[in-house]
Amino acid sequence: MLSSLDERDVEAGVRALKMVYQSPEAPKAHRLTADALQRLVVLLSSDNRSVAEVAARVLARCCEAPEQKAAVADAGGLEGLLRLMSTEELSHREAAIDALATLTSGSSDISRRVADSGHIIAQLLPLLKSPSAHVKFLASCCLTNLAPAMPSTSGSPSQSAEMVRKAVLPVLAKLLNDPEVREQVPAVLSQLVADNRELQAATADSDAISKLAGFLRRDDCSPRLKEGTLRALSTLCADREQSRRQLLDAEAMAPIVRALDDPSPQVRLAACMCVRSLSRSAKSLRGSMVDHDVSTTLFRRLDDPDRDVRITASATLCNIVLDFSPVKEAVLAAGCIGALVALTGSPEGELRLNAVWALQNLVYTASSEVRAAVLAAVPWRTVVDLTNDMQTDVQERTLNMLRNQCAHCLPPEVSKVLQWSGGEIYALLVSRVDLAASHPVSHRVQAIYTLVNIAAAGEEEGRDGILEAGLAAHLPSLLLTEGDDLRLAAVWAVINLTSSGDECPGAAKRVAILREAGVSAVLATLSQMELDAEVRERVKTAVSNFVAHDMFTE
Amino acid sequence: MSESTILLRNILGGWRRSTELAFEAAAIQHLRQHPCPGIPNEEDQSLGTFPVSVPGSLTSLDGKSEDYSPPASCSYLKMGQTFEGTQRVSRLDSSPDENWPVEIRIQDVNLEDGLLWGSSTWHLPNGKSPVITAWEGEIIDNVNHNFVTSKWGATQQSDMMFWSKFGQFGPLRHNVLQRRGRCGYLRDYSHIYMRWKEQCFLNTGEDCGLTIAGFYYICMSRRTGEVHGIYVDPQSTPNHHLSLRPFTPGVAGSQTFSAFQYR
Hints:
The complex is a heterodimer of chains A (about 550) and B (about 260). With about 550 residues, chain A is mostly helical. Chain A has helices at about 5-20, 35-45, 50-60, 65-75, 75-85, 90-105, 110-115, 120-125, 135-145, 160-175, 185-195, 195-205, 210-215, 225-235, 240-250, 255-260, 265-280, 280-285, 290, 295-300, 305-320, 325-335, 335-345, 350-365, 370-375, 380-385, 390-405, 410-420, 425-435, 440-455, 460-470, 470-480, 485-500, 505-515, 520-525, 535-554. The mean pLDDT of chain A is about 90. Chain B has one domain: Lipocalin (Beta Barrel), CATH 2.40.128. Chain B contains 5 helices and 8 strands, in the order αααββββααββββ. Chain B has an 8-stranded antiparallel beta barrel. The longest helix of chain B has 14 residues, at about 20-35. In chain B, about 45% of the residues are buried. At the A-B interface, helix 18, helix 21, helix 24, helix 27 and helix 30 of A face strand 2 and strand 3 of B.
């Protein structure tokens, strides 16, 4: 009918399509063909403006898939909609922004094409003040989608991406009160403030968090509202302690934990994300997480039928197992270590990363029982494989786990780690710090600190083992490498290897080896250089360790 | 040790519930009579108020060239760092001071927000199992927190009085007065200043014989990691003095370094 030459047929056809797509039972699976989309695009330029309006409404409802969006854009749909935006009639413009909001959603390419074209931002901004909540909402959606695509060298500062976002934020915050559009607002809000700490703070100041928490507490909260709300809260609380406190004070924890068991996988995923954001804080880990049995529910989600839920649940466990979280006991009792070790063998890179990350955090300042349990559950071969994982993040977290195994513990515990590795740990770590090999700096830092810890907390055997594995030859170049992290770690290695006392009779021998390798000469050079206060202080200590030995031998 | 001695903070809590002014007067009086041993103390100076003009101050006052960067990172102010030491508890009567052994662990440090979290394990002289408290700390970094407390019953006067008890605060004093609590040159300064405030008991109830109503003024040596603290509770005087040193169960002078990341 859309192709008919009779205008009345076309109008009837497009209105029928609109009716179909307005129905909640609209055939999501049935997609309009590229040809039909093209017809709709042509109708956008129809002389009969009401036909154009209806065509825009249909496009707004039927273009969820990226290839459909691309087809509409390639057929000239964006230009047609922008023309419709320039008409006087508000209903036409509303239909146009409805379609633009859909087309720009999730598509940086289309967003850029729209943002680049003419005065669209200037046309949209006044609509934020429209008396219609729906128009305000659609304009907010468009602007939220367009902001990241706006040219950075925009002429007018009032049209910078930042200013646009700042204009949209209060509008969205107010729309949370509007029953007509409320259900869709949190998801857009979440998108608007993602990766922007300033806007996240402004959102929290607008009491949006308590409003959002209020939605979750209501019995009639629809799955869509619940998902959007949980996502928005997870964005707002991801990096901001104050927002976490606001959310916990709003008594939202119970409904959030309930949502972890929601029948909808999207809601379960959003709930996992929200708990993950909340658990990124020492304060909530020792408070709210304990009171609401989060860990047991979360542990169940490791077997969730939905892949994304499994991944986010395992990511959240990384935080839950931290030593200062009393929840840890419950997680351990539930067989957490075995489950995590099993996940380190997953073919999914994200799951392997989360599993080894959780093990790393689990042994952070842990009791000797927990350390021993991890050593017993993880075969050394697995560690070797993980340090060669195709994902470099997995390698780094594995090295960090070794580092934590050897910190804040007694000498027998370090000896256990050395035995566990069959003595291979020295060579593995020293090969990581080798500047001739192409390892990321962060890996080198983890490897050196593991050696630093073995030297500090272990027996003489460990300190001698480190030098036998050839660390001394690498130290001068590590000490001279620009970058405070690596240098500081290397200085601590020198300090710990040269500290003297009754428990380290071999210190003099180690001092001689390090001097032979040129370490003392490099330290002398460093002490003449302009260095960061912390490095300068530690270099002094290292030098004084050498001097102390000289005085003793003389 | 008698139970009543252990309940010192509680007992004293009832002793003075007066106005802030009266508290200050008493505290000032007390500190003048009992300078804090173990804390290198400069010549007692008159207490300043804000704002005040300090002629002859050594630092430039134009404010333009002054570096207000936060303190640089320190090997002892880091996640996982453990300290051990004592809290010296003085009494108002003439009975001898008590030393309460304590172990403290920094659990997490967020330099960007100038915050840290930790736990303290107190061995009270009643011989019962240790009391564990959780605390939050603020790093004086010019960005998130400055030397003016503005809460917990502190006033600018009492702030200056207690900070001045740390000998190394002397060179900063005039600057802090001039800048209403901010202070340049903290980035490389020999000491790092903080406030620690206990939040809750982790393994026991409120009736364990320890109150956590007050807070600590804290001064950490960048070089040695030694920490001195003054516990101040407007509801109970006199103040307690905390002294800590970094603890590693290995070779003296050595340190271990653990790390975690939130996911």
